[in-house]
Amino acid sequence: MPRKLSGGLAGAGLLVVLAAAPAAAHHSFAAEFDAKRPIRLEGTVTKMEWINPHAWIHIDVKRPDGKVEKWMIEGGTPNTLLRRGFSKHSLLPGTVIIVDGYQSKDGSLKGNGRDLTFPDGRKLFLGSSGTGAPRDGKDSTEPKR
Amino acid sequence: MSHRFSASLGVLAAVIAVAPVAQVAGQAPTAAVKKTAAAKTKAVSPARNTPRTSWGAPDLQGTWDYATITPLERPKELAGKEVLSQGEAAEYERQTLERRNPDRRDGGAQADVSRAYNQFWWDYGTKVVGTRRTSLVVDPPDGRVPPLSPEGQRRAEARAAARSRSPAGPEDRNLWERCILGVNAGPPMVSSAYNNNVQIIQTPGYVVILNEMIHDARIVPLDGRPHLPKGMRQWMGDSRGRWEGDTLVVDTTNFPDEANFRGASAALHLTERLRRVDADTLHYEFTVDDPQTWTRPWSAAMPMRTAEGPIFEYACHEGNYGMFNLLAGARAEEKAADEAAGKGPR
Amino acid sequence: MRTQLPGALIAVAALAVLPLSVKPTAGQVRAHKAPRTADGKPDLNGIWQTMGTAHWDIEGHVARQGPVLALGAVGAVPGGMGVVEGGEIPYHPWAAEKKKENAKNWLSADPEIKCYLPGVPRATYMPFPFQIVQTPKYVLMAYEFATASRVIHMDNPNFESPIDTWMGHSRGRWEGETLVVDVTSFNGQTWLDRAGNFHSDALHVVERYTAISPDALWYEVSIEDPKVFTRPWKMRMPLYRRLEKNLQLVEFRCVEFVEELIYGHLRKKSSK
């Protein structure tokens, strides 16, 4: 017998079911990165590895004492970006980015790029059709089309 | 609003042909639509405008995207509801996208780490399937994968135990973390988080199913040759193809003990069916028959639509920093625990 | 050059009508017209494999000791005539030194040992079969080693790759009887053989596949990489059709064979 649904499918049970999916896809990140070691870094891109299974963005982070730390930040598959028109010429060395994430469990200078933004708060690699975001010309990493 | 269609095969074929996945506006759900989704695509009269190759075979070629928001299994909360109305589908999509949005930062640190990275890296798909069924599973009728057999249950528990404990080595992780097989390529193929892409290439003697993850080219001979000997087991099994009318039927056996699909076993006998519905749509259906793992065979169907762009290289093992990191992390945690407990190095 | 004559007579007739400038010598392409595909192109479909020792060393070499003592004769390097036109690879001086260093560090440095994708042209002459599945728009080459594959985009010369890859970006076209494949956008991390011969990410490869008999192709590769070589150079070798009935590529994913090698140092030590 069909269950009576409210007009908005707003059953909390349904939401619980859906919540499981994204975490399961990358619980390996929970094995790599430490939830107890949040990081927030501002760094200059030195190179981006457009590789699978995860892209890696290398940044130089200048510490208050003047020392420069070389960090590697893990992202997702670059293939979804390539399909939206980005390329190895997007996110060039010298670009300043902010990384909000978690440090690796072994304490090395690696982190996941939980949230990647420019210093003005705009997210990296937007301006594509995948999320419906309009191409408004504000994203310097956006391919010129 | 509901329409009543006759249940004739010809009309069912027409329903499939005019229900492209990419658009939300489709046919209203009816008894005929349900029957269509559940029916095995045996020899049917060709859909209108089925493209054909120059040697007259149905043309399945193209680069196809099988991203969809429709889950494999019908959510328990939707039990008994086989198809969504247009309005319900739109709401379901909205809620799923909102719930799934990895840019949300609520839920605590552990959930935050597991959400991994920004929305722009993901490509789960944003639409339900064109038929608005509530599950990809079409058989059993409740839209859920049948229960595991006792042997299947035992193996599932062993697997879960291996995944949850600190990994001793790569063998404790799943096949896609090890970069041996892709998460969505199976076989069978099932929609997942990104790169739900496959390219199909055909010659008179072969159909090639080339999955993006992990650059797997299944070269399926159509000449009726026998399968490999039983003793030869391959990660993706051994596939043989034949035409049944306009449907390509791919028969795959010779899987190893730990096949890549939901814990299937060496007893897995997989049947996949591919049929070109229209210029932009491929209908893909599979039947899983593994008596060692599930109590009965089961089937699912997933439409594929023309992909944007080509298949890109997915070299996985070559760039698998993640495996180093998770093993190094596990060893670091053990060392810290030992030191905290006052023990010497292991 | 079509004829209904039996085999030996066909060969003689072919020789007789060749212009002098293309008289076959050792290593030259012999004229042969392959059967046609449905779209009228030479049919190169099939499973192919090289013979010889190019995978060990593309330059001419005598047999030498291998680095793994326990393998004895099995691990020794067999001798072979080279496939490099002119014999020697024209390295810049720094690159010649780098090649020697690669050779010395073969076990740790050769990407093949770690089961990494072999790149082009190395994939062609690995000691494994590969399959050509040929259609008008795409030609698939599926290599048994590491389940490597590449799709050659036919008649799409302006299609550029957005990134650099292991197997490069392949664009093909037909020149008469020859499939010409232009490969660019390499990431520079593959080698050319097990002897340490290498290239950079500036590598540009042009391959030419031509049928020379019903069961053999002539394979010629032009290598250009101004960072590493002083000039372009070529390799050439036959590709032989695998004739066994019902032959198929058998999986050699190989990742599972190298996990202990690569990650073994991070394995949990048993307390036993």
Q: Can you offer a commentary on this structure?
A:
The complex is a heterotrimer of chains A (145), B (346) and C (272). With 145 residues, chain A is of the alpha+beta class. Chain A has one domain (12-117): Beta Barrel (OB fold (Dihydrolipoamide Acetyltransferase, E2P)). Helix content of chain A is 18%, strand content 33%. Chain A contains 3 helices and 5 strands. In chain A, strand 4 and strand 5 (110-117) form a beta hairpin. Chain A starts with 11 loop residues before the first helix and ends in a 28-residue tail after the last strand. In chain B, strands 1, 2, 3, 4, 5, 6, 7, 8, 9 and 10 form a 10-stranded antiparallel beta sheet that branches. Chain B is built from 6 helices and 10 strands; from the N terminus they run H-H-E-H-H-E-H-E-E-E-E-E-E-E-E-H. In chain B, a hairpin with a 4-residue loop joins strand 4 (206-211) and strand 5. Chain B has one domain (9-315). Chain C is α+β, with helices and mostly antiparallel strands. Chain C has 2 domains: 1-30, no CATH class; 32-264, Beta Barrel (Lipocalin), CATH 2.40.128. Helix content of chain C is 13%, strand content 23%. Chain C contains 4 helices and 9 strands; from the N terminus they run H-E-H-H-E-E-E-E-E-E-E-E-H. Chain C has a 9-stranded mixed β-barrel. Mean pLDDT of chain C is 91; it is low at 1-5 and 16-26. Chains in contact: A-B, A-C, B-C. Chains A and B meet through helix 1, helix 2, strand 1, helix 3 and strand 5 of A and helix 3, helix 4 and helix 6 of B.
Named CATH topology of the largest domain in chain C:
Lipocalin
* Anisotropy-based shape of chain C: globular
Distance between the termini of chain A: 52 Å
Largest interface: A-B, 67 and 68 residues
Q: What portion of the residues of chain C fall into strands of 2 or more residues?
A: 15-25%
Number of domains of chain A: 1
Main sheet: strands, sense, barrel of chain A: 5 strands, mixed, barrel
Provide mean pLDDT of chain C, rounded: 91
Give the neighbour order of strands across the main sheet of chain A: 1-2-3-5-4
